[in-house]
Amino acid sequence: MKVTNLDERIHVLDSESNVMTVIKNIAMSGLQEEAFYVLDIGDIVQKHKIWKEKLPRVEPYYAVKCNDNLIVIEVLAALGINFDCASKNEINKVLSFGVESSRIIFANPAKPASHIRHAAAVGVDTMTVDNESELHKIKKLFPTAKIVLRIRCDAEMAQCPLGMKFGCDPIHEAPNLLHLAYNLGLNIVGFSFHVGSGCQDPPVFYRAIHHCKILFDMATDLGFKPYLLDLGGGYPGNKGTSIDKIAEIINKALDEYFNTDAVHVIAEPGRFYVASAFTLATSIHSKRSIRGDENSNAITHNMYYINDGVYGSFNCLLYDHQHVTPIPLKNGCGKMIPSSVWGPTCDGLDKIVENIMLNDMELGEWMIFENMGAYTLPVASPFNGFPIPKVHIVADEDIWLLLKDALPLTEDHFVIGNTPANLRLGLDIGGNDIDPWRDTHPMELAPPEILTDTSNTPSHFIFEYVEAPLN
C-alpha cells in the first residue's frame, strides 16, 4: 500500500531527536491545541527482538483488537509477525496489506455465521472453538476448517479476566467436545488458552500447558493429528515491565510437555507489542480551583480539564482497568497541590485521575501520558464532538534502514526530517487536512530537502484573516 498523505508517513528523526522532543516541538508550536499521540515504531521493533530472545519457540500472532492502527499492522507484517483476528473486518484489514491468509488465526470462539463464511471465502481456515453449538455451526458452514479447541485456565491476577466468557473446562467439557468433533468429522488441529489480558500470575501458563498436553494425547488417541499449541495473550507491555518470568515458565513447560518440533507453538500478544510505543499529549483547556472555608482563601484542590477523556483514549480506564499517571510537560515549582484530571465531555463519569499531587498548572499547559498504546484508540469515540487524537509516527535512522524495504513497507512510507515543520505540514490544529480540494486535486509533496527546513518562514497552509473594506 502506497502512502500518499505526508502526515501518514513515518518521520525519520535525527540523532538529537526522540519522542519527547517531538512532543515538545508540536505542543509548544502555538499551532497545536488538540490532544495527539506520538508513535515510536522503534519501540515495537525492540519488543519483537525481546520476544524472539525470550520465547524463541513461540511464534507471535498479534492481537489486532489491541490496536488496529494501520502503520502498526504494516510494521508488524514487515517484521514477519502473524495476526490474531476476531472478526471479518479485522481479517480484511490485515489481508489488505498483502498478508497471506495462512498467517491469520480467527481466534474468536463465538463467531457470527457470516464471519465464518467470509473466513472460508478468503482462506482463513484456522479458528478457535469452545462449545458444542460452534462445532455444529462450523460443520454446516466450513467443515474443512482447522479447529483449535480453547480451554479455560484463568490467572489468579489479570488486568482483564476472560475465562467467564470464553474457554471450556479442560477436564470435563474438552473431552466431550473432542468426541463431538470426531463424530461430526471435523478436524481438531490443536488447543489454545488465554489466561487473561495483562497476566500477573506467571505460573498459570505452566498449568495451562500441562492441561493442553493431556488433551493432545487424548486427541491423538481418538485419531486426530494435533500439531498446534496456542498460548494466547496476557503478556505485559508497559515501560518497566518484563516478560522474563512468564517466558521462563513457558520455556520450562514446553521443554517438559512439548519437547518436539512436531508441535507448532504460537501466542497472541497484544499489549506487549504496542502499549509503550504510544505516548499521548493532552493540554489543559479549563481549570477549577477549590478553596478553603471563608476563614482561608488557600487552594485545597485543583480540577484540570484536558482535551481527551474516558470517551476517547482513556476508555482504557473503564474497559481495560488501566491506571494512568499525568506527567507535566513543563517542570513545575512550588508546593504540590491535591489535584484531579477530567476529560472534556459534559459527563461526570469523564474522570481520568481522581487524586494526584501536582504543582500548580495553568491553562494551555500540557500533560503527557505514557503507555497508551493498548486498548485505547480502537475503542475511542468522538462523543460530545471532541475529536479522536491524531497519531504522529516517528522512527530513528536505524529503524528506517531496517524497514524501508521490508514489504508491505516501502521507502514511500518514510519521510526524512524533524519536527515541528513537517509533522504539521497540511494540518490544522485539530489534525485534519485543511485543504478542501486535496481529494479532487492532489498536490505534489514537497521534497525532503524542503521538509527539513526548520526556518521561521511561515507555512503556506497558515492563513491570516483580514477584513476587507466594502466598496
Number of domains: 3
Instruction: Please write the CATH class name of the largest domain.
Output: Alpha Beta
Q: What fraction strand? A: 15-25%
- Counting helices, strands and paired strands, the structural category is alpha/beta
Radius of gyration: 25 Å
Low-pLDDT windows of residues: 1-6, 158-163, 425-471
Q: What's the number of helices?
A: 14
Q: Please identify, by name, the CATH architecture of the largest domain.
A: Alpha-Beta Barrel
The largest pleated sheet is described as: 10 strands, mixed
CATH topology of the largest domain: TIM Barrel
Which descriptor suits the 3D outline?
Answer: elongated
Notes on the structure:
The chain has 471 residues and is of the alpha/beta class. The protein contains 14 helices and 20 strands. The chain has helices at residues 19-27, 41-54, 70-78, 88-95, 113-122, 132-141, 173-184, 204-222, 244-257, 271-274, 316-319, 397-403, 421-424, 448-451; strands spanning 10-13, 36-40, 58-63, 82-85, 104-106, 126-129, 146-151, 158-160, 187-193, 197-199, 228-230, 264-267, 278-291, 299-306, 327-328, 336-342, 351-359, 366-369, 390-396, 414-416. Strands 1, 2, 13, 14, 15, 16, 17, 18, 19 and 20 form a 10-stranded mixed sheet that branches. An 8-stranded parallel sheet has the order 5-4-3-12-11-9-7-6. The N and C termini lie far apart (52 Å).
